[in-house]
Design brief:
By secondary structure, the protein is of the alpha+beta class. It is built from five helices and five strands, in the order H-H-H-H-E-E-E-E-E-H. Strands 1-2-3-4-5 form a five-stranded antiparallel β-sheet, with helices on one face. The longest helix is centred in the first third of the chain and has 96 residues. It is rod-shaped. Keywords: Coiled coil, Signal. This is TonB system biopolymer transport component. It holds the Pfam family DUF3450. InterPro entries: UCP028069 (IPR016866).
Amino acid sequence: MSKRTLIASTVIGAFALTGSAVSADTLEDLHKEEAKIHAAAAKSQEKINTLFEQSQELLVEYRQTVDETENLKIYNDYIASLVADQQRGIDSLQRQIDSIEQTKQGIVPLMFRMIDSLEKFIKLDRPIHLDERLERVQRLRDVMSNSNVTVSEQFRQVIEAYLVEVEYGTKINSYQGTIDSNGTEVTVDFFNLGRTALVALSLDQENAWAWNNESRAWEQLGDEYLSSVVDAVKMANNVIPADLIKLPISAAE
């Protein structure tokens, strides 16, 4: 080969080697850049995944908050209705408290009238336990003048006295006492059949009297009533069983 040909071959070989070196460096750089891109993409995807999970958690919290808000609204409405009902009760109690003085002003005169009426009734009624009943009326008057006794307690005692009076008309009873017979005080056994009849029997069981409510006096009974009055007293004292007896009874007009 000539020198010129040899030099040309050498130059061409040198260029070929240089080109191969350049191509290898470029390819390596491309691989590095591609690796960087993949790494950056992976980090970005990781951030995206993290943000997605956070958004899902926030969505769940949001839904829970909405549900709790609805529940609280319903509960608050319920509490509000209870408070309104309690307020109505408080207002009602306050009105009653405000009217207590007015109630007292009305009920106190009523009780005085009831006591007066009770006393008049007792004095017009058959004298069954007369002293005891009149003493009860006096105790009511004492209670009414006692500032330490509440109005409600005063009213209770007045009503209780009326209930005791009712019992006198529904029971048979026998007790000892005295009567005035023609100016003479005689100790006797009383017997009352409710308010229908009131009779008296001497302790020696020799004489009997009946109360005449029209004349307001004791009238001596004939012998035809004596045995019945004796039996009546014994029945009231549970000495003998109850049975039919003959007593003087005023007919209703």
